[in-house]
Amino acid sequence: METILNEIYENVMNGDQNAVPAKVQAALTAGIPPATILNEGMIAAMNQVGKLFEEGEYFVPEMLIAARAMQAGLAVLKPHLALADVKAAGRVVAGTVKGDLHDIGKNLVCMLLEGAGFEVIDLGTDVAPERFVDVVKEGKADLVALSALLTTTMPNMKNTIDALTTAGVRDQARVMIGGAPITQTYADQIGADGYAPDASRAVALAKSLMGG
Ligand code: B12
Confidence band (pLDDT; 50, 70, 90) for 117? Predict the structure, then answer.
């Protein structure tokens, strides 16, 4: 088990887009739990990539190819993260806020929410506040899930909440936020309804915000 997880870790770090899906499949076949593959193989590798970037050893291209390798692996993992036959638990509109292109964490949150029975409208990355407002106005979402990975784009979470308030629809949906630089303190500061540090706790949070 250790060996194959180490291989996944190395392959994500090195951005080996061809090796990662095959290794993830091999790990699943070997009976390693999907959450272990995700956390100990893939997310651990992305954290190391971030560290190397900070230390000046990796540059944007290396981050990008590591991200692509991770996404290739996630595609294999996805059906195994989702639970079958669960009924809709609520409707979520999700997106990475304006100015921010990071989507791996947001995609994972969406995958696990879907797996838990939520209906998810994923607006993608670089999403302007007005686009979230439109979906809420149309009555298509009970929850708004905002992701930000950059300290410079975090204020767009507050801008989105403010836009919901200005549009008079703030009370129609609960807002949950997350992403590496986000904290509970920040969530409280900007008037979000909840924060979660990872995708599985995002699901628990979403359920509790739905009153479940
Ligand atoms: C991959 C990556 C990239 C890729 C993104 C590809 C993609 N498709 O996403 C690329 C190469 C494009 C990129 C670009 C940049 N990046 Co970058 N990137 C990363 C890296 C290495 C990994 C991020 C990641 O995917 N992590 C894995 C996922 C699973 O974790 P996660 O996103 O945190 O999500 C989890 C939780 O946070 C939570 N969560 C996430 N969203 C939500 C939402 C809700 C509602 C909830 C409840 C929970 C939740 O659940 C998730 C699953 O557990 C991080 C380093 C790091 N440690 O974060 C740097 C990092 C975020 N990047 C950084 C920087 C500086 C940049 C650039 C500015 C670099 C540049 N000079 O151009 C650009 C900005 C581009 C832009 N406008 O967005 C810095 C940010 C520093 C800062 N303080 O702001 C970091 C921290 C690297 C570093 N250590 O310096 N990056």
Answer: confident
pTM higher than 0.90, yes or no?
A: yes
Evaluate: CB of 60 within 6 angstroms of ligand 1.
yes
The per-residue pLDDT for range 173-193, each reduced to its tens digit, is 999 999 999 999 999 999 999
Contact 149, 181 (CB under 8 A): yes
What gap in Å lies between CA 145 and CA 125, rounded to an integer?
12
**Which residue's alpha carbon is at the smallest distance from atom 3 of ligand 1?**
63
Question: CA 42: distance to chain centroid?
Answer: 13
* Closest CA to ligand 1's atom 70: 60
Spacing of C-alpha 15 from chain mean position:
20
From the list 114, 110, 122, the residue with the least C-alpha distance to 89 is 114
Residue type, 44: A
The string of pLDDT tens digits covering residues 128-143 is 999 999 999 999 999 9
Closest Cα to residue 51, out of 69, 30, 66, 73? Answer: 66
- Nearest Cα neighbor of 94 from 38, 162, 174 is 174
